[in-house]
Fold:
Amino acid sequence: MKKIINSFIDKGFNEGLNKEDYIELKNLLININDKNLILKVNTLLSLIYNAGVLNKLSDENIKYIKDNSYLLPLVLTNNNQEKIKITSMDSYMLLCPFHVDHKPSFSVTNHLNYGHCFTCKTNVSNISYLKKQENINYIDATDLLAYIFLFDIKYQNDKVLPITKKYQETIKSDRYSKLLEQGLVREINKYGVSSLLLERYNDMFKTIDRIKNNEYDSNFKLKSENKKLILTNEILKNTNL
Structure:
């Protein structure tokens, strides 16, 4: 068994480890009793997973999904706060979803897809917010974000698909639209009108209309990518391999 595991490590250095290797290594665990070998296999599995090898989407696809979706409606979906203060450029102050919060301390900068709590110091993006809020892994959170904002990723993740509707309802709601309108007026009054400002808000409102009409983003192009984990001496040095 030790030779088999070492052959995977050698392959990681020479060719790289792919999804099929991950599945084979996971199956190997059933027949291993040696604690050191179990640790090695679990380390390999973790490295392969964290390298994004199991994600069906290319890195380019994931970047597009992150850049063309918005954090604010995601947070609003799980927040019943009546009055939301707009504090600075496209930033909204809400009750923090990650600790017991009696005074809003969680700032969402909508166009940057960035959330920060000034009390518990939690930082999130649109994907990491879904990951934390729904208690799901990175791959499931990426799929969920794609489903919410209607990027056609061509496959169905039944684990997260049922959660999609509640977030889309917020995007289509008057509450979200009114907050964006208030944010736009505030920015115009404070900073003046600019083509960049109008383009940014225009994109947000176009996204709302697209989701209301159940239309996929026509600019999203699904790209296949054969991802692999390439092992290096540095990885070897910093792990139990």
Q: What stands out?
A: The chain has two domains: 2-55+227-237, 59-212. Residues 2-55+227-237 form one domain. The chain has a mean pLDDT of 92.
